[in-house]
Amino acid sequence: MKELRGTTAIVTGASRGIGVYIARALAEEGVNLSLTARSADELEQVRSEIESMGVKAIATVGDVSIAEDRARLIERTEAELGPIDVLVNNAGIERIRRFEESTVTDFTDTLAINLEAPILLTLAVVPGMLERRRGHVVNIASGAGKVGVAYGTSYCASKHGLVGFTHALRAEYDRSPVGFSVVCPGFVTDDGMYDRWAQHGIHAPRIAGTSKPEKVASVVVDCIRKDRSEVIVNTPPVRPLVVLANMFPSITPKLLRRFGYTGTFEKVIAAGIR
Predict the structure, then answer these.
(1) Whole-angstrom Cα distance, residue 66 to residue 62?
(2) Is the pTM of this model over 0.85?
(3) Orientation of helix 104-111 relative to helix 153-172, angle to 10°
(4) 162-183 pLDDT per residue, tens
(5) What is the SS3 assignment for the chain?
(6) Is the Cβ–Cβ distance between 65 and 117 less than 8 Å?
(7) Residue 126 and residue 17: Cα distance in Å, rounded?
(8) Quick one: average pLDDT of 27-52?
(9) What are 184's strand-pairing partners?
(10) Catalytic one among 155, 173, 194, 261?
(11) What is the pLDDT of residue 244?
(12) Measured between alpha carbons, how far is residue 26 from residues 11, 32, 139, 232, 235 in Å?
């Protein structure tokens, strides 16, 4: 989609973290926005800010894991802003746990929000996109969707699924005008989960580095414009490490411990960060 001005986009998880930055980046391109999240007050603040940027913006409080809330979001978006051109599946949760100490809801909640909801929202909007021969879906996954990390079993399972889901869609609709992208951020500074870690003195491994939320947002816009398949957002680039880990999976645990990934998550558990 080369021209974004005047189009309509849904952004989930838009009340905090990188969802806010994605909304801003799209608004700067002239995109009208339908924002959703569970936090009413924060969501309204974002909606007001986005509207002040000269585009239309609506806020629908809801939980993307609930079918009725998803249906209400889509119905209201189409009624007030028009056909949905872009869907950004950004809402997500992360549970850092030892596997044997995990609860059933650690898995059911994470999979429902991080994987099932994006799949079902995509299923709801793609038929209209195909009919109009215009549209793009961006799924926000994670570096943990490319390599499994210790203590992140539920999160990794959901994000690996989201990466696979995106590439399956690209294979199926490769001759279609509707595009699909997956963005895999690493450790993102300034807001969200990693910012909470930093407040406890826990920092990303040197080889992993960090990225600004503005960078993630700019990548999302670039994916929509250029129909990019997959982008790992990380400074410095870690794709060589990802390739190595996938080529030689038997050495991946040793690599992750050697480069400090495993130790970082062990510190999170020791600090009791939830």
Answers:
(1) 8
(2) yes
(3) 30
(4) 999 999 999 999 999 999 999 9
(5) CCCCCCCEEEEECCCCCHHHHHHHHHHHCCCEEEEEECCHHHHHHHHHHHHCCCCCEEEEECCCCCHHHHHHHHHHHHHHCCCCCEEEECCCCCCCCCHHHCCHHHHHHHHHHHHHHHHHHHHHHHHHHHHHCCEEEEEECCHHHCCCCCCCHHHHHHHHHHHHHHHHHHHHCCCCCEEEEEEEECCECCCCHHHHHHHCCCCCCCCCCCECHHHHHHHHHHHHHHCCCEEEECCCCCHHHHHHHHHCHHHHHHHHHHCCHHHHHHHHHHHCCC
(6) yes
(7) 26
(8) 98
(9) 232
(10) 155
(11) 86
(12) 10, 8, 15, 20, 23
End-to-end CA distance of the chain: 39
Q: How many CB atoms lie within 10 A of CB 203?
A: 15
pLDDT in tens, 73-87: 999 999 999 999 999
| Cβ density class 29-40: b for 16+ within 10 Å, e for less | bebbbbbbbbee
CA distances from 214 to 123, 145, 191, 233, 238 (A): 28, 21, 11, 11, 19
Region of residue 243 (phi > 0: left; psi between -120 and 50: alpha; otherwise: beta): alpha
Q: 155 catalytic, yes or no?
A: yes
Q: Is the dihedral of CA 86, 140, 203, 200 positive or negative?
A: positive
Please write the tens of the pLDDT for every residue from 246-270: 899 999 999 999 989 999 999 999 9
Q: Which residues pair with 59 in a beta bridge?
A: 35
Distance CA(96)–CA(75), nearest Å, equals 35
- CA atoms of 119 and 1, how far apart (whole Å): 21
The pair of structure tokens assigned to 21 is: 């930055």
Domains and their CATH numbers in the chain: 8-193+207-237 (3.40.50.720)
